[in-house]
Amino acid sequence: MAIADIRCRHFEQYSKTSGYKTMRKYLIVTEKTDTGYSAFSPDIPGCGSVGDTREEVERNIQEAIEFHLKGLRDEGYKIPEPSSYSSYIDIAA
Question: According to the 3-state scheme, what is the secondary structure of the chain?
Answer without folding.
Answer: CCCEEEEEEEEEEECCCCCCEEEEEEEEEEEECCCCEEEECCCCCCCEEEECCHHHHHHHHHHHHHHHHHHHHHCCCCCCCCCCCCCCCCCCC
